[in-house]
Amino acid sequence: MNDPSILIFFIIAIISVIIAFVKTTQFERRIAREIESKRFTPISISRRWFDFDEGTASFDVVYQDSLGLTHETRCKIRSFMLFFDGDIYWTRPLVDHNRERQDRVKHDEGRTFLIDTLRKENKELKERIKELEARLV
Predict the structure, then answer these.
(1) Is residue 67 within 8 Å of 98, Cβ to Cβ?
(2) Taking CA 82 as the corner, what is the angle to CA 7 and CA 6, rounded to the nearest 5 degrees?
(3) Cβ-proximal residues to 76 (8 Å cutoff; 6+ apart), any chain
(4) Cβ-proximal residues to 88 (8 Å cutoff; 6+ apart), any chain
(5) Contact 75, 60 (CB under 8 A)
(6) CATH 3.10.450: does it fit domain 4-95?
(7) pLDDT of 63-109, one tens digit each?
(8) Distance of CA 66 to the CA centre of its chain
């Protein structure tokens, strides 16, 4: 046990673990800010320690949208060095079903208007055909 290399190894290992947990906390705060910037509520952010994707930190994320619906996704943050981090990459983009629903309603309203217009035009054409058939007889 008098070998100083073992002591140095343990000190380096402990420092590495501390740095990993500090960086994880920073990443979790960064992900939470990203979610909140899109007006969602983060529910849980947990690191995937054994992702085996070199140079990235992976996280499982659960958040709530404006309708109260819960969504799950995964993100990765490229971590180049101790003090520099890259962009956040989402496996599934953050989604707001309320906006999607509004877009769908607008689309449905437009479709309904088009169908009603075509029905009205069809009815007018049928009446016009009856008038023309009556003149021929």
Answers:
(1) yes
(2) 10
(3) 51, 53, 56, 57, 58, 59, 88, 89, 91
(4) 30, 31, 34, 75, 76, 77
(5) no
(6) yes
(7) 988 778 888 899 998 876 566 677 888 888 887 665 666 666 666 67
(8) 13
| Mean pLDDT along residues 19-30 | 87
34 in Cβ contact with 87 (< 8 Å): no
Residue type, 128: R
Rounded CA separation 2/12 (Å):
17
Token readout for 105 is 């309603």
Domain ranges for the chain, please list them.
4-95, 96-137
Pairwise CA distance, residues 115 & 122, whole Å: 10
HEC letters along 112-133: HHHHHHHHHHHHHHHHHHHHHH
Q: Which residues fall within 8 angstroms of residue 18, CB to CB, at 6 or more apart? A: none
- Count of C-beta atoms within a 10 Å radius of residue 92: 11
- Write the CB contacts of 45 (distance below 8 Å, at least 6 apart in sequence): 28, 31, 32, 59, 60, 61, 62
Place of tokens 């290399």: 5
What are residue 62's DSSP bridge partners? 44, 72
